[in-house]
Amino acid sequence: MEELIPAGTNPHQWEGPMESLHRQISFSLVFTAILFIILTLILNINSMIILGIVYFFIATQLTVWSSFKKKSKNAIMPAMLNLLICSVLFGSMSVFCLALGLSFGDFSYLLSGVLFLLATSSSWKRLRILRDPIFKGWYQGLKINYEAMRLNRETVVSCHNCESILAIDVTKFGIDLKCPTCNDYLVSELTINSFTEEE
């Protein structure tokens, strides 16, 4: 049986789940740069020194994004550092906004705090993917032989919760199988419900 190709993609250009993860992380890097630009405009910072530091950080982030998108060999470590800094900054902003929202009872601060919390979680998940040895090997140009994995009854899957990349023995796969990283079920409740409805 040939490898399944997602709908809407070109079968000759699709390189499997790693390419999809690479696009997601690349989008995450450019999105955080855009978010910092919007945040700088909203905060109306008057200090030239702080503005200079923020704009330098944004320029660095866009440079890292460009290199990472082109799969430059030296871009994976700066991308990891970038996502780590973003996680810390987003986490700090989340705590700050939630504290202001709770103390003043302002819904906009609470909403901002929740959004920054989601951005922190997303950056942290992307950072964990970048640290994954399988992803690093693919990024550095090592060919992952999906056919050999299939012959060994293994397949590559991604956890829907923490997005860890896992090699799973197909013969042992079931709905009660848990991710070793986050200890959540690999099959989501939505998928289980849709299968039970079809039966």
Q: How are the elements arranged and paired?
A:
Blueprint: H1 17-43, H2 48-69, H3 76-104, H4 107-131, H5 133-139, H6 146-151, E1 154-158, E2 165-169, H7 189-198
Antiparallel strand pairs: 1-2
- Class inferred from helices and paired strands: mainly alpha
What letter string, H or E per element, gives the SSE order? HHHHHHEEH
Low-confidence stretches: 1-14
**What is the number of helices?**
7
Spatial strand order of the main sheet: 1-2
**Bulk shape:** flat
Q: Indicate the percent of residues in helices.
A: 55-70%
Largest sheet: 2 strands, antiparallel
Query: Could you give the count of β-strands?
Result: 2
Mean pLDDT: 79
Approximately how much beta-strand content do the residues carry? 5-15%
**Rg estimate, integer Å:** 20 Å
Provide the number of structural domains.
2
Keywords:
single chain; 199 residues; mainly alpha; two-stranded antiparallel ribbon; 7 helices; flat
Give an overview of the whole structure.
This protein is mostly helical and 199 residues long. It folds into two domains: 17-139, no CATH class; 146-198, no CATH class. Helices cover 63% and strands 5% of the residues. It has seven helices and two strands, in the order ααααααββα. Helix 2 packs across helix 3 (76-104) and helix 3 (76-104) runs antiparallel to helix 4. The protein is flat, with a radius of gyration of 20 Å.
